[in-house]
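Supplementary Methods. Inverse-folding protocol.

Structures were first reduced to a discrete structure-token string of length 393. This string, shown here, constituted the complete conditioning input.
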């Protein structure tokens, strides 16, 4: 018996619909290389391009034994602000960095805490390295909430931050940490004779073998600051940071470096809504959970004056100014931008972002990956602006 024409049409449509749904379910998802919604500004993901090492001179691991008093090591340290309860996460970070780099160069580790380190913390961290470990207590005057901060105003501000769903907004200790990382850590007596540091946080990962002395390279190439990840900040955490910066710059125009990165700091084209909400600041910043830097910059008069201005303004507590935007704005305005270096050869992850170069020295991360999180995170990548205004050095 012949099938009626309407039923034949319905069967054809159903088969087509089934085929379409199967195609959508099993097709390969589009590849995203980190440019997000603005891929045209960065047509080629640079970490997908083969890369070896930065230009010489490069100091290799000769004579760097931990017990060699005449080693080529310079005044530098690996630096971590960490609590006793973060021990497991700190061991993860240490194992990665020792495996990929420090087991060859044996630079000391310096750990900071606002309470004494436990004996377990000291014993287990020292077991991870042949290098010397230093365990330092932060002076109370460096950690305490400043006397000019109004506690009632802080409480009200914390409620507002919580209502805006600002992460860590109500936590006093988080505000203290941001202030300490911004303008206090380099004043600690244990760092008095130390020039360079590499900041390391718990639960981060390093993926690539680094076969040269990073600190020597910074010194030989006259670099002030090194980063791996460059992001946008949440503008609701820093609404008055840029207005306060403009007040400071109006009083100190002489601090603006002639070869500055101000365009990167104030860009309004790529994410105009961020610039509007932050009142003139792009919110682009170096993600400072990784930073390799010369403390001479933080100790300089321009930076010390800038930090003092911000500290008195109260935004570390009444808002949620982080050390990342504070450091980044200062570097973008006061420093020669050619002295800021993207360490594209250092494979790094701090959840949820990566720096994953294409190199035979790397293993454990996906080449070119910016994030393994949700798609909306791709728009947080501010590297395109840095490459546009400064370059890829």
């Amino acid at each position: 018996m012949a099938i009626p024409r309407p039923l034949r049409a319905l069967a054809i449509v159903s088969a087509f619909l089934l085929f379409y749904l199967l195609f959508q379910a099993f097709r390969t998802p589009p590849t995203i290389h980190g440019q997000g919604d603005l891929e045209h500004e960065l047509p080629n993901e640079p970490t997908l391009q083969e890369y070896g090492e930065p230009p010489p001179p490069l100091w290799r691991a000769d004579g760097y034994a931990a017990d060699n008093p005449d080693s080529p090591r310079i005044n530098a340290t690996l630096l971590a602000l960490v609590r006793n309860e973060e021990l497991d996460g700190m061991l993860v970070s240490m194992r990665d960095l020792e495996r990929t780099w420090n087991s060859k160069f044996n630079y000391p580790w310096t750990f900071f805490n606002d309470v004494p380190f436990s004996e377990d913390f000291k014993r287990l961290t020292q077991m991870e390295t042949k290098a010397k470990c230093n365990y330092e207590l932060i002076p109370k005057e460096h950690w305490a909430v400043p006397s000019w901060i109004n506690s009632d105003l802080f409480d009200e501000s914390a409620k507002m931050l919580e209502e805006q769903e600002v992460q860590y907004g109500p936590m006093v200790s988080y505000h203290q940490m941001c202030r300490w990382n911004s303008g206090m850590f380099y004043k600690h007596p244990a760092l008095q004779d130390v020039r360079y540091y590499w900041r390391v946080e718990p639960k981060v990962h390093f993926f690539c073998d680094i076969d040269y002395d990073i600190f020597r390279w910074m010194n030989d190439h006259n670099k002030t600051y090194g980063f791996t990840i460059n992001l946008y900040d949440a503008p609701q955490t820093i609404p008055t940071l840029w207005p306060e910066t403009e007040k400071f710059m109006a009083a100190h125009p002489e601090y603006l470096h002639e070869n500055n990165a101000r365009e990167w700091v104030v860009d309004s084209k790529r994410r105009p809504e961020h610039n509007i909400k932050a009142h003139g600041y792009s919110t682009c910043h170096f993600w400072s959970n990784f930073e390799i830097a010369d403390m001479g910059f933080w100790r300089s008069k321009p930076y010390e004056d800038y930090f003092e201005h911000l500290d008195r303004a109260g935004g570390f507590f009444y808002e949620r100014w982080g050390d990342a935007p504070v450091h980044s704005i200062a570097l973008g305005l006061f420093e020669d931008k050619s002295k800021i270096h993207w360490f594209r050869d250092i494979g790094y992850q701090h959840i949820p972002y990566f720096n994953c170069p294409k190199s035979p020295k790397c293993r454990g991360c996906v080449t070119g990956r910016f994030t393994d999180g949700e798609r909306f995170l791709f728009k947080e990548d501010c590297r395109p602006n840095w490459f546009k205004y400064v370059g890829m050095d």
